[in-house]
């Protein structure tokens, strides 16, 4: 079951749940909703790396002095999975046996940022427990989620505000929770407007690199190198800059496909960008090519390898800018 389905209609309380996925905000919200379904229970939180399967079993087999049952939340349940190249998955198999045997009345919640479905133990757990997929939402659903959360927080998002928020922070829903609280306070009782988002929500870091990329494509090497050195002075590492450039190159490739399908209007409809970056993105994407994508990806990956191998990061970055400029 995906998180949105569970959030709307959680169904009857189950003995065991797995909250799997990298959206911590969803996992936290799902755990809160499950606990609320058992108002007569004490909530106990354990760390999987410290507690182990034995401690979890002990808690499920001992009664609470103060309530009829417990809700046992095991955080970091990915610790039960074997490490790479391990010869066995004993912890996971033991956990699977525990989950299969557990019928209540206590409620077990396995909170796991990562969930590997390939193991026998994880497959067995999925058969015995309710698995809630807490992974990222499809991009098309994120603005709707922002609007929904705003209503739950007692406010609302005006026209264009949800789309602008998505353009600025992307699918980072944990950050969205904090930004929504900040915007609600700033709006002071009125609907959160588009301009509020522009003023209060900083661009996601992947967009900060956009001006550098724009200068490189335009062949303005001097400006690009100046920007690059500014990033280094601010403490940015080359591997992080390369990752942000890779992300934007993939966005340009998506934008070019949209352009071929329906022109500039299709880019604006399909690719969400911050309002002050849209025109520049449309211009670049319309003139982008698959050959540029391949060329840039190779240069970026080569620079990433050089940086991770201990090369001079600043020199590698400057050479990268020169090579990207020539490839444009």
Question: How do the helices and strands line up, and which of them pair or pack?
Answer:
Layout: H1 3-8, E1 16-20, H2 24-36, E2 41-47, H3 48-60, E3 69-75, H4 90-101, E4 107-112, H5 120-128, E5 130-133, H6 142-152, H7 161-169, H8 173-187, H9 194-200, H10 205-208, H11 210-217, H12 221-233, H13 238-270, H14 278-286, H15 290-308, H16 313-326
Q: What is the average per-residue confidence, as pLDDT, rounded to a whole number? A: 88
- What is the CATH superfamily of the largest domain? P-loop containing nucleotide triphosphate hydrolases
Helix segment tally: 16
Shape estimate: globular
Number of domains: 3
Order of helices and strands: HEHEHEHEHEHHHHHHHHHHH
Helix content: 55-70%
> Low-confidence runs (pLDDT<50, min 5 residues)?
none
Strand order of the largest sheet: 2-3-4-1-5
Which class do the helix and strand fractions yield?
alpha/beta
| First-to-last CA distance | 45 Å
Task: Walk me through the structure.
The protein is an alpha/beta fold. The chain has 3 domains: 3-133, P-loop containing nucleotide triphosphate hydrolases (Rossmann fold); 139-200, Orthogonal Bundle (Helicase, Ruva Protein, domain 3); 205-326, Zinc Finger, Delta Prime, domain 3. It has 16 helices and 5 strands. A 5-stranded parallel β-sheet has the order 2-3-4-1-5, with helices on both faces. Helix 3 (48-60) links the parallel strand 2 and strand 3. Helix 11 (210-217) packs antiparallel against helix 12 (221-233). The longest helix has 33 residues, at 238-270. The chain is globular, with a radius of gyration of 24 Å.
């Amino acid at each position: 079951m995906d998180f949105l389905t569970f959030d709307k209609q959680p169904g009857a309380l189950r003995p065991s749940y797995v909250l799997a996925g990298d959206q911590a905000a969803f996992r936290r919200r799902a755990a809160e909703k499950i606990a609320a379904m058992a108002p007569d229970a004490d909530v106990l939180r354990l760390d999987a790396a410290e507690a182990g399967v034995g401690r979890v079993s002990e808690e499920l087999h001992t009664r609470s002095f103060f309530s009829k049952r417990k809700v046992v939340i095991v955080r970091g349940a990915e610790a039960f999975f074997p490490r790479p190249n391990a010869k066995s998955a004993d912890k996971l198999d033991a956990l699977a046996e525990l989950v299969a045997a557990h019928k209540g009345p206590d409620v077990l919640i396995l909170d796991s940022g990562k969930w590997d479905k390939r193991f026998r133990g994880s497959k067995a757990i999925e058969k015995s427990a309710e698995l809630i997929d807490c992974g990222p939402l499809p991009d098309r659903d994120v603005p709707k989620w922002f609007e929904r959360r705003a209503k739950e927080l007692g406010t609302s998002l005006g026209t264009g505000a949800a789309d602008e928020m998505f353009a600025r922070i992307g699918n980072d829903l944990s950050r969205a929770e904090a930004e929504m609280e900040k915007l609600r306070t700033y709006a002071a009782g009125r609907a959160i407007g588009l301009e509020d988002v522009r003023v209060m929500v900083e661009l996601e870091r992947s967009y900060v690199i956009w001006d550098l990329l724009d200068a490189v494509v335009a062949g303005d090497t001097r400006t690009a190198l100046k920007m690059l050195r500014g990033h280094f002075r601010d403490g940015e590492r080359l591997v992080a800059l390369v990752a942000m450039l890779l992300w934007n190159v993939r966005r340009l490739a998506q934008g070019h496909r949209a352009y071929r399908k329906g022109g500039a209007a299709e880019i604006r409809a399909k690719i969400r960008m911050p309002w002050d970056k849209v025109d520049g993105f449309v211009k670049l994407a319309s003139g982008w090519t698959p050959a540029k994508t391949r060329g840039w990806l190779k240069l970026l990956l080569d620079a990433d390898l050089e940086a991770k191998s201990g090369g001079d990061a600043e020199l590698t970055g400057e050479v990268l800018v020169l090579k990207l400029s020539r490839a444009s």
